[in-house]
Amino acid sequence: MKKITLLIILCLTVNFTFSQVLFEDDFDGSGPGLAGWTLVDNDGLTPNAAVAQFTDAWIEADDFDNAGDVVAMSTSWYSPAGTADDWMITPAINLTSDAILSWEEEAQDANYPDGYEVRLSTQTTALADFTNVLFTAATGSPAVWAPQSADLSAYTGETVYIAWRNNSTDQFVLMINNVLVEIPAAFDASITVPAAAQDQYTQIPLEQIAPLGTDATIENIGGPITNAIATVTITDGSGTVYTEDSAPFAIAAGANQAVNFTGYTPTMADTYTTTFTVTMDETDGIPSNNTVMKTTEVTTNTYARDDDTPSGTLGIGANNGGYLGQQYDILETEDILSVTFAIGNASGALTGLNVRATVWDMVGGVPSTIIAQTDQITVTAVENDMYTAAITGGPFTLAPGQYLVAVEEPDAAGGMPTDENVQVVTTTAIYTPGATWVNWPTNPNGAWSNSEDFAFEIAYLIRPNFQDENLGIENNAIENFTIGLFPNPASNVVTISNPNQVNLLEARIIDVTGRVIKTIDLSSNLDSERRLDVSSLSPANYFVTIKSSQGEVTKQLIIK
After folding, report:
1. How far apart are CA 92 and CA 115, in angstroms?
2. CA–CA distance from 122 to each of 80, 149, 450 (Å)?
3. What's the pLDDT tens digit per position in 337-395?
4. Domain assignment of residue 431, given as a range
5. What is the DSSP string of 17-65?
6. Is 398 helix (H, G, I), strand (E, B) or coil?
7. In angstroms, rounded to a whole number, what is the distance separating the alpha carbons of residues 552 and 554?
8. Over pLDDT 90: what percentage of the chain?
9. 17 — pLDDT class (breaks 50, 70, 90)
10. pLDDT of residue 420
C-alpha cells in the first residue's frame, strides 16, 4: 500500500505550487471508505460458496497477500456462472482545474484475472449517466499491484462521479486501492531508479555484488524546469563512502532525463544505503518524491531472497516427489559450500524425515539438470526450524549464470509419510515474478512452473552459502594440515583437534548470514586439542573459520 500525503496548497497567479488533492481513498482511513461510495449490484447473481464473503457489489477486505492493508474488491465467480455487472461509484468530485485520476489494480489469481472499466458521469450516479469511458482493461494486472491513471482535464470545471465496474465472466477477484484525484503541481521533479537484479535479494555475497548507485531517471511531472541536478550518496556502517552529482539539465514538461553515475562497488560485507536526490531552480511542489533510498546487505558468503520473516509454508502434497526452489544469479565464479533452508513442521508429522537440497543448472531460463546436491538433514520437531546442509563431496564450483537451489520432496517410496508433504517456509518479501519454481511428476502445468502460476507470490527461505575467497587454504602445497571439530552437534563446549600441532592464530564463528558472531584468540597454541566455550551461542547452524600459520579452514558447527 502506498501512503498518500496531503500537501499544503499555495496559490501563485493561476497555478498551484503544490498538488491539490480533490479526492482520495485508500480504504484504510484516508478517505470515506466504501460507506461513502455508491455500490450497485446490477447483475444480482449469487457468489460461489468459495467467495461467500462478497455480500455486496464491492466489499472492503484485507489484501490477500498483505494482511492489514484494506482494499476494495469484487468477484465475478458466481454459481451458476454468469457475467458480473458490479459498480463502485465515488462521491461527487468538483474538478476546479486540470486533474489526474490515479489508482492501483490487481487481479488476485493470474489464471482467472477479472477485467473492468472506469467510467465517468457529469450528471448523477444513475448507471445510464456513465457514458464517458476513461479506462478499459480486458484483464487486471495478474497477481501483482500495478498503477493506472487517467487524464481528467477534459472535464475541468464540472462536478463528476467516477465508477469502477467489474464486467468479467466467471473469473475470481478484482482488487482496487489508493484512488486519488489531484491537480498536479506547477513544478514537480521526481527521481526514480530502475529495478535491478540485485533488488531481488535481501542478502548478496560480496563476490556477486554489482556496482551500486549507477542509474537514475529525473522525471518532470510539472512545467519546464531548469538546472535539475541528480545526486547519489552511498553510506555503510562507518559513514559516506561515495557521492556524485550529475550535470545540470533543463527538462521540458512531461519529459524524462536518464542519469548515469560511476557507482560504487563494495569491498567488504556491510549494509549499504544508496540515496538518490534531485534539486532544481524552481520551487518543487511535491518535495516528497525528490528522494529515493535503497538498502543492500552485502554478506561474506550468503545469498537470500527472503526477509527472514516466515509468512507461511508451501509443499507439493502429491506424494510422488518433487522440488521447490528459487533461482540465483552468479556473476562471478563461486564455490557453493552449503544450503540453508527452513522446514515448517507444524504438525510434527515430518519429524525424523531425511531431506536434502539440490542445485540445478538452467537452460533457456528454465531449470534443467541437477549438478550438485547436499547431504541429507533430519527434520526436527521444531516448527520452522532452520537447517544447513553441506554440499556432498565438498564445495562445488558454479560458473557465471543462473542456477536453481531447491529442496527435494521425497516420494512415499523414499520414506515420505503418505499423508504429509515437505513444507518449505515462505516469506512475502522479496517476491519476484519468475524467480520461484516448483516441479513434480504429475504437475498439470508441465515439468516446471513458477509459484505465481498457482497464485503464490512468495519467496522461499532457501539460501545458498558460498566459500568466501578469503577462507580457503592459503598454501595449496600443504598436505598434512588437518583440523577437526568435535563434538558436532555441540551445546556448551567444542574441541578443535590439531593433530599436526600447527601454530593456530584465531577462530571466527560465523552465522549463516555471514556475520561474525565471535572471534577467539588461539595465538601460539601448539596443543593437539583446544577447547572453545560456545555456551553463549543460540541453537543454530554456524561456520567456524580456523586461521593458522599454515592457512585457513572452515568447518560447519551445529549448536543444539
Report:
1. 25
2. 35, 19, 45
3. 999 999 999 888 889 888 999 999 999 999 999 999 999 888 888 899 989 899 998 88
4. 312-466
5. SS-EEEEEE-SSSSS--GGGSEEEE-S-PPBPGGGTT--SSSEEEEETT
6. strand
7. 7
8. 58
9. very low
10. 59
User: Among 183, 213, 245, where does a domain finish?
Assistant: 183
Q: In terms of domains, do 274 and 170 share one?
A: no
- The residue whose grid cell reads 552485502 is 298
* pLDDT, tens digit, 9 for 90 and up, residues 257-290: 999 999 999 998 899 999 999 999 999 988 989 9
- Do 296 and 321 meet the contact criterion of CB atoms below 8 Å apart? no
- CATH code of the domain covering residue 207: 2.60.40.10
Q: How many CA atoms lie within 13 A of 391 on its CB side?
A: 21
Helix, strand or coil for residue 414? helix
Q: Bigger pLDDT: 103 or 109?
A: 103
Number of domains in the chain: 4
The Cα–Cα gap between 530 and 449 comes to 50
Question: Which residue from 38, 37, 58 is spatially nearest to 47, judged by alpha carbons?
Answer: 58
β-pair partners for 427: 459
pLDDT for the residue numbered 551: 65
β-pairing verdict for 189-192 and 215-220 = antiparallel
Handedness of CA 353, 356, 362, 363 (dihedral sign): negative
In a domain, 386, yes or no: yes
Instruction: Find all residues with CB under 8 Å of 377, minimum gap 6, and list them.
Output: 354, 355, 356, 387, 388, 389
Residue 406's closest CA among 347, 366, 351?
366
Grid cell digits, residue 479: 598436505
Q: For strand 173-183 and strand 215-220, is the pairing parallel, antiparallel, or unpaired?
A: unpaired
- Report whether 425 contacts 315 (CB < 8 A): no
Residue after which a domain boundary falls, among 266, 299, 332: 299
